[in-house]
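#lab-general

N.A. 3:47 PM
ok so I finally got the sequence cleaned up, no stray characters, all 298 residues accounted for. can someone with queue access submit it? mine expired

B.Y. 3:52 PM
send it over

N.A. 3:53 PM
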Amino acid sequence: MNNELPNKHLVARSFGNAAAQYDDVAVLQRQTGDELLERLSLVTLKPKRVLDLGVGTGRNLSLLAKHYPEAQLLALDIAPAMLKQARQSYQKSSGLKRWLPYAKTPHYLAGDAEHLPLADNSVDLVFANLSLQWCDPRTSFAEIQRVLRPDGLLMFTSLGPDTLRELRQAWAEVDDYPHVNMFYDMHDVGEAMMAAGLAEPVLDTDRYTLTYDSAMALMKDLKILGARNLNAGRRKGLTGKNTIKQVGDAYEQFRRDDLLPATYEVVYGHAWGGQLKQQKVDGEVRIPLNQLQGRKAV
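B.Y. 4:20 PM
back already:
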């Protein structure tokens, strides 16, 4: 694993700036969140403490509360502005129920997945939807293993290296600078999980295709989402209109049915904390990591 990781201060600032408009364009985040929650529903688990790691605007926090009404929810994000948005979203979705005497209010924590502000063995479930791709996997999985109780569960999604491959290729025809963030592949993620001591890691990949009228519309959405180019070797300074036009022209080679595709490779994974556990996901076949192959679907 030799990907150069983005500066976390830039990550926090970028997502903080995106907080107010994030939900307007977070199509992929909703799809992967729903899929992750559906997978979670197949697991027999009664967590006392649930960590929404990279809570974002809090959309999944309310759904986790419905899944586990007795659990104490912890909402953690690297961007304080996102936490503020998550708090407002949770209060709105809870309505008057939040004033009931038995209602549990989530704890909101500003923090980084590589340095979790939580005690050892303090969490029963870690739910992380499209947040771990900004982290060093060995460090973040070691932290997750540290805070998970021995019978705790990690469920997550991340982005794989084929994400935005069309945009990457279009930029490559214009200059030699990296313009699209690079992400770890499934096998690197699996190795990091095993190195951290997580038990029974299971991984698979899926592909999603979003469509746009123009390359500019895609880049505008990425900006709103806070998914800016955070590569250490990125070009400094502003990008000129002529360069953007060249990228748009290069992207046209991918146009189908009058729309431009944007491919996202999503890695789905789960593992147990501590030693090998008896709980199983219904109907699942466990495959050694060295035999894993991504299943591809659009």
